[in-house]
């Protein structure tokens, strides 16, 4: 080590929600850690993803829920104050200032270096700081790459040249665009179309294939499609966009179903791994690819390198990145102490839930809350299963929640073991129901025991009872 080099037990590349948690866990475990961040401490979730997008959606959701209750609806006499909603969004992002998160990092005893980090061989990282200087960091035990992901711009002719919005612009725009084209009908496309249409834009959503939210139960995409159309969004399924151009101030997309014009286009077509400029080639890996990791988040073929969060492509959700961070952090600490790390499913060192029980919520109206396997995934996995479905609107709690409540619950039951493989709820306000399902799936609670988990009356949770009764037949 030269004088200019600094050594830490653990180096963490990227101070998003994942990297922050890896660093925190290893420091709590008695190791020293340094976080390297090239942009804002807190990463996408805080500034350009979860928090601003949910803030953009929440006002419209509250208004919709009030309008769905006779009596209360009479009080909704005005329109949403869009400027105030955008101000509230700006508050959640701390006006894109990370001072609060930096304070947390310092308070947690984690060192912070600002700059662009690149691996430079085993356990060695070179950071290029904003003034162009280089700092060399070496790790005694481990390096965790938590550099996340960015919007993937699909190979559509001319798309990169029309300066499309990515989710960054889609969540941080200072005003609603007049006409917004949304390319992609997955999580981002459905949420952002729901948000901006209700904040004054005229949205056209273009999605290839025959449904929205294709990775979820078909009922989810159907309900969100109906609600987007009711809001006035022009949804075009079966539209594979293959060319883009600017025509004066307009952006024009062409696809298999015609030509579409707007003032802006939001690309919501999936993510790409931030591994293209992180020096992974210096340790024998291919830049641009997701990091291939085992269940303790250790990069295959190494003993010191970890890939945690969006960068491994396993489950690109903030809560799953933080879960992986807790598991990887525990594994790093144990290995540093020379302890054996148990790689069996559900051990304290592995992220088994990535495969078996990933929960997610799409914050559209209705919401889609899902955990574990869909029916199609259970079939693909060759698991013996039965699908049980029930309309949530028939439950007393739902009828009280909103007049004419409409929703669906779907449970996928493993018929050999009589446990739940997956559950999906589609309806207003179902996000908070999801954790009950996650506990049932992770705990592999037998159906016979779930009968004793009595939901309170009159809550939407009574849907559990209806699902169990339907399964029993
Ligand atoms: C519009 C949108 C809405 C979303 N909403 C939700 C939601 O509601 N709930 C949910 O669970 N998930 C949501 N997600 C997904 C969620 O944002 C991600 O899963 C999460 O942010 C990933 O965290 P991460 O720390 O792994 O990566 P990031 O948050 O991407 O953090 C990586 C960090 O590494 C830094 N970095 C990259 N390269 C380098 C380098 N070479 N040197 C130094 N630093 C580097 C980056 O600047 C960044 O700060 C949403 C995503 C989008 C796009
Ligand atoms: N609420 C949440 O938890 C939340 C919200 C937003 C994002 N996220 C995370 O971010 C990830 C990325 O979201 P996303 O919506 O960008 O990706 P996605 O994979 O969910 O959806 C992208 C969609 O774009 C379509 N598409 C791609 N190229 C196309 C083309 N040329 N023409 C027409 N359609 C095309 C695909 O068919 C796909 O359905 C999600 O998978 C999720 O992990 C989570």
TrEMBL record:
Q: Which residues form the FAD/NAD(P)-binding domain?
A: 8-324
Q: InterPro entries recorded for this chain?
A: FAD/NAD-bd_sf, FAD/NAD-binding_dom, FAD/NAD-linked_Rdtase_dimer_sf, Pyr_nuc-diS_OxRdtase, Pyr_nucl-diS_OxRdtase_dimer
Disulphide bonds annotated for this chain are 45-50
**Cited Pfam families:** Pyr_redox_2, Pyr_redox_dim
Q: Which UniProt keywords apply?
A: FAD, Flavoprotein, NAD, Nucleotide-binding
For activity, the cofactor(s) needed are: FAD
Where, by residue number, does NAD(+) bind? 184-191, 270
Carries keyword NAD? yes
Going by the entry's taxonomy, the superkingdom of the source organism is recorded as Bacteria
What residues form the membrane-spanning segments?
none
Note accompanying the cofactor annotation: Binds 1 FAD per subunit.
Residues the entry annotates as binding FAD: 54, 147-149, 310
The reply on keyword Nucleotide-binding is yes
Q: Name one molecular function that GO assigns to this entry.
A: NAD(P)H dehydrogenase (quinone) activity
Q: Which residues form the Pyridine nucleotide-disulphide oxidoreductase dimerisation domain?
A: 358-464
Fetch the PANTHER family from UniProt.
MERCURIC REDUCTASE
Family that this chain belongs to: Belongs to the class-I pyridine nucleotide-disulfide oxidoreductase family.
Protein name (Swiss-Prot/TrEMBL): Dihydrolipoamide dehydrogenase
List the lineage, top down: Bacteria, Bacillati, Actinomycetota, Actinomycetes, Geodermatophilales
